[in-house]
């Protein structure tokens, strides 16, 4: 909640809480009238207009804007956000932190024995060998950690149905915030923007260009991007499969990403790191060429 209030004050489209009559952000309320009813912490947030990115057909313009957003949010959080509880964002074994892809070993059983498991095992092993040793050289920051296509709201500032111009109108769900690295955020954004895209492999270059307009990556960070995007696919797909076994009644919701996620992850590995990176980096480079004086 404090991060949301901070970002709103910095000009980002983040919800803010209405204060209670006592001037508090939250209130402890009973969930029923019977004695012994559970109590819940309740807060009321301002309304954010817009449509989730998952509900639109993305274009290069909004993908670039989402990349800029990802870098800008992390940059201002890392440089300006000060609060006594900020230390709690050092979340160690938090399963959704991209540094913890190796922890998927303990959940991979949920996939059974199939081609999907084989590619996830490949992701984990390559991640251990090629990403983990380089983490200390990456640019550190505070990550939002979950800029997915349901957590970013957009609205259209143009009447053109053929080529709508979107702007980000809302950022949701700050529950996965943790200390990490700038390159984590761009990898997470790329992965989730691929989910519903009709041309998923082209997405990365546009998001990367927007991100690097705010925060350029180092050569080592760029070199890790393919495995970081793959690692986020693996996290999302494996944890969803594991959670669906625990809560089968929620399987449909939990496996939303799986509808296209497995196909996209498999395609990335079939096409290969070199070819995927070439597509991403050439697209991103085209922006810098176009913007050059």
Q: What is the gist of this entry?
A:
The protein has helices at 2-9, 60-80, 115-130, 182-194, 200-212, 219-246, 251-254, 258-271, 273-291; strands spanning 17-18, 27-30, 39-42, 44-45, 51-52, 140-143, 152-156, 166-171, 178-181.
Give the rounded overall mean pLDDT: 93
How many domains make up the coordinates?
Answer: 2
Number of strands: 9
**Biggest beta-sheet profile:** 3 strands, antiparallel
CATH architecture of the largest domain: Alpha-Beta Complex
Specify the structural class. mainly alpha
- At the fourth level of CATH, the homologous superfamily of the largest domain is Aminoglycoside phosphotransferase (APH), C-terminal lobe
Query: What is the highest CATH level, the class of the largest domain?
Result: Alpha Beta
Q: Shape from CA axes?
A: globular
Helix content: 40-55%
Number of helices: 9
Contiguous low-pLDDT stretches (5 residues minimum) are none
CATH topology of the largest domain: Aminoglycoside 3'-phosphotransferase, Chain: A, domain 2
Strand order of the largest sheet: 5-7-8
Measured distance between first and last alpha carbons: 42 Å
Strand content: 5-15%
Helix/strand order? HEEEEEHHEEEEHHHHHH
Rg value: 20 Å
EC number: 2.7.1.81
Enzyme class: transferase
GO cellular component, one term: cytoplasm
Function: Catalyzes the GTP-dependent phosphorylation of 5-hydroxy-L-lysine.
């Amino acid at each position: 909640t404090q991060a949301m209030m901070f970002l709103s004050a910095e000009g980002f489209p983040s919800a803010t809480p209405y204060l209670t009559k006592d001037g508090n952000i939250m209130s402890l309320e009973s969930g029923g009238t019977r004695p012994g009813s559970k109590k819940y912490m309740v807060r009321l947030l301002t309304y954010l207009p817009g449509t989730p990115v998952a509900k639109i057909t993305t274009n290069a313009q909004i993908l670039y804007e989402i990349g800029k957003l990802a870098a800008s949010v992390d940059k201002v959080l890392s440089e300006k956000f000060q609060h006594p509880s900020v230390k709690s964002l050092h979340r160690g074994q938090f399963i959704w932190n991209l540094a913890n892809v190796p922890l998927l070993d303990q959940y991979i059983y949920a996939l059974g024995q199939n081609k999907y498991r084989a590619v996830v095992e490949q992701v984990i092993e390559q991640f251990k060998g090629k990403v983990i040793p380089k983490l200390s050289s990456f640019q550190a920051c505070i990550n939002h950690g979950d800029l997915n296509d349901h957590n970013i709201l957009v609205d259209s500032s143009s009447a053109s149905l053929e080529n709508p111009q979107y702007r980000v109108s809302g950022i949701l769900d700050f529950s996965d915030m943790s200390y990490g690295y700038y390159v984590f955020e761009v990898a997470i954004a790329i992965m989730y923007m691929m989910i519903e895209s009709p041309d998923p492999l082209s997405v990365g270059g546009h998001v990367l260009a927007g991100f690097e307009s705010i925060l350029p990556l180092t050569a080592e960070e760029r070199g890790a991007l393919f495995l970081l995007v793959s690692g986020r696919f693996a996290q999302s797909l494996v944890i969803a499969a594991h959670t669906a076994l625990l809560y089968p009644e929620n399987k449909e919701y939990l496996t939303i990403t799986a509808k296209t996620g497995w196909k996209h992850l498999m395609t990335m590995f079939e096409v290969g790191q070199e070819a995927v990176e070439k597509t991403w980096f050439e697209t991103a480079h085209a922006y810098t060429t176009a913007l050059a004086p």
